[in-house]
Amino acid sequence: MVMLIQALLSGVAQGAIYALIALGYSVIYRTLNMGHFAQGEFYMLGAFFGVWLFTKLNLPPIIVFIASGLLTSLVMLVMERLAYRPLYTRSVMGLLISTLGMQYVIQTIAKIVWGSDVKRFPPMLDDSTVYIPFQDNRIAISMQSLWVIGVCAILLLALTLFLTKTKTGLAMSAVSMNRKAAALMGVNINTVITSTFIIAAFLAAIAGVLMGPLYSVSFTMGSGIGTKALTAAVMGGFGSLPGAVLGGLLLGVVETLGALYISSAYKDLFSFIVLISILFLRPQGLFGQAKVTKV
Amino acid sequence: MHKTKRETKIVIFVMVFIAAVMPFILGTKNNYFINILISYCYYGIMAMSLNLLVGYTGQISLGHGAFMAIGGYTYAILTKTLGWHFLPAIFGSLVLTFLLGLLIGLASCKLHAIFLAMTTLGFSKVVSLIIINEGWLTGGANGFVGIKKLTVFGHRFMNYQLYFVALALTLMVALICYRLIYSKTGRAFQAIRTAPIAAASMGINVNGYKFLVCGISAAMAGLAGCIYALNINYLSADIFDKSSILLLTMTVVGGMGSLFGPIIGTLVIGTLPELLRPFAEYLDGIYGVVIILVVLFMPHGIYGGMKSLIDRKRKSDILSEVTP
Lengths: 295, 324
What we know:
The complex is a heterodimer of chains A (295) and B (324). Chain A has helices at residues 2-32, 39-56, 61-84, 92-114, 143-165, 167-177, 179-184, 189-211, 221-236, 241-261, 267-281, and strands spanning 129-134, 137-142. Chain A is mainly alpha-helical. The termini of chain A are far apart. Chain A is built from eleven helices and two strands, in the order H-H-H-H-E-E-H-H-H-H-H-H-H. Chain B has one domain. Chain B contains 14 helices and four strands. The model of chain B has no long low-confidence stretch (mean pLDDT 86). At the A-B interface, helix 4, helix 9 and helix 11 of A face helix 5, helix 11 and helix 13 of B.
């Protein structure tokens, strides 16, 4: 029982990270109706910027978070200008493949700048363990996972407020519903699309800084977690924010429980089985709206 | 039947001729070049099969390398572990990949675009997981070693002879693609890509054709896997993991939805690693840059770009004839 609760907690913490990156996917899908394969690489960039700012410049944690988020967003802005913007008026397939190429470009840039060896990220936040008495035993909770869950919750709240209350957020919904009509109403489409990419990069970078101290930092860390987070976003219903969060948490919990009770070698298999069964029962995902195609 | 233009026929003839005399020019004992030539064959088959799926039918697959892996491993297990003759072994791996392709077909009937892409990606992850973890069957992380060279009636095939077998198989696949694309079935595929609902209302069995194309394309990938196993005599999961993206690059760079595109893409992208040996560490990044540049400046790939250039020239020729 104690083991189950501990596993659930660490699963939720892992899932919260998936959820943060998945939120980025969902924001992009809402506006552009497509995926973004390079999303995981911005998680990696965030972690690298975090390590650099924290160990070399000795900045306080809160500034490390914000600054690495902003630096990653800046990289995203440059990349978006160069490789994505000319494609907005063409078919989605081209843009999708461009993001696939971007994934490898960013990986290689990170490899050139920071080298290919694994870096250690010293613990930035409180890394002690608290014990809570439970029945005749006690449950160990690491403060780190509580921090992860807390930061994810705050960011989710901020994102929801941004999307429903601010002008740019509302413009994003308008663009996703009808791009042409939104443009006619005076919404600057390019700015809106750029800001979705920047939000996605920011969220992924924060996730990278959060996860850096728990694992080590290397230039290959992004692609695996990017795929996982995409699975989470697809599972929850692509484009839906609560869906992305729920999908992320579900994926994290399924993975930890599967690794604990069944087999750790086949950890990735469980997430695939869950993805397939959800997609076959509800092809639009858990929270997604079924698309009705008008002819 | 579709009429091929005379120029196209000449181009095809010249290409096949060059491919056939290449080993004699480079030297039949030069294993380095022969291996590159054989790699063009199996990657060409893969790119053509992916083109059938993505370019003509519009079903995105990010895990096509998995079928190559399944084909190769099935061949290896059947010939080495079970001691089968090579012909039934190739046939067996074709049947298996065809059936597993139908499984992906089942997914593509139900799911659209990104959802299908995710499923195929997950499928390829699962295949490589199984290959790594089931060491008793596949050799696990060490890879499958000691696959026998092709031997017919006691005659052991030299590398360049294997190349001719591979070339013949590639031409056969190209011919199948050609016949398929210009048949009723091929037109149905293209209708499904451009307008699935209109296709269904015209009486095209959309789901049936999706099943068919997934099966055929997977079986072609399986054949490429067999050639790979015969050539390298060694299999490991990580090679195939990477190849899914490499193949997508080849198809996109060459030009999707055209018969020549994937072949051009294979020749260009397949040659890059050999030319860029000193930068092997940064090869992925170079692929990335090439993908982005092609998408930005040649939306229909190299083939599309060349075609529009030729069309423009022809148009200006006609104009100059009309106005002296």
